[in-house]
Amino acid sequence: MNHFLETQNWRYATKKFDASKKISTEDLNTLKEAIRLSSSSYGLQPYQVIIVENPELRAELLAAAYGQSQVVDASHLIIFANEMNVGDDAVEKYLSRIGVTRNIPVESLAGFGNYMKGTINNLAEDAKNIWASKQTYLALGNLLNAAAELKIDVTPMEGFNPAQVNEILGLDKLGLNASLMATIGYRHEDDATQHLKKVRKSNEELFITL
Known about the structure:
By secondary structure, the chain is an alpha+beta fold. 47% of the residues lie in helices and 14% in strands. The model has no long low-confidence stretch (mean pLDDT 97).
């Protein structure tokens, strides 16, 4: 079997982490780079990624995640937070990054910048925030795949109270909103879920060829 498919069959949403096992700095840096290199609409990356290591903070977040033990037992807790009401400032910062990275004058990107601004500013605020939140799922996908390559377990989590997470971490004051959580670490040997067969639609059920 293709190695990538093998790792996809290996991974699952871990229910119980081994709290005694920690991810090495080298592996954590690899996962961070995988997240950083993720695709996003226009390449804008309208989000920030918070890595919560502080045990006291994680204990506070446990209630906001409805008591899911992964929040405190996993090696690290990652929160993907989308920017709220993305506007011209985010676009200008992105154009500046392009100019520096590719060594081209920012002025030459004016057309691209105006196109992005026009498209984004035409969205209602709610639609804009939903769009920004969707970008975090692309980053999560890269995290899942990179972690599986390293045999590091990840549990993606939507089951939490964003308002509580925002308050605990002060995200609302930064113009951010908690969109997704992901706990990363190593499965506990007692986690029975790891022995269950993966359940997915068959090719015939899933794919439509036109």
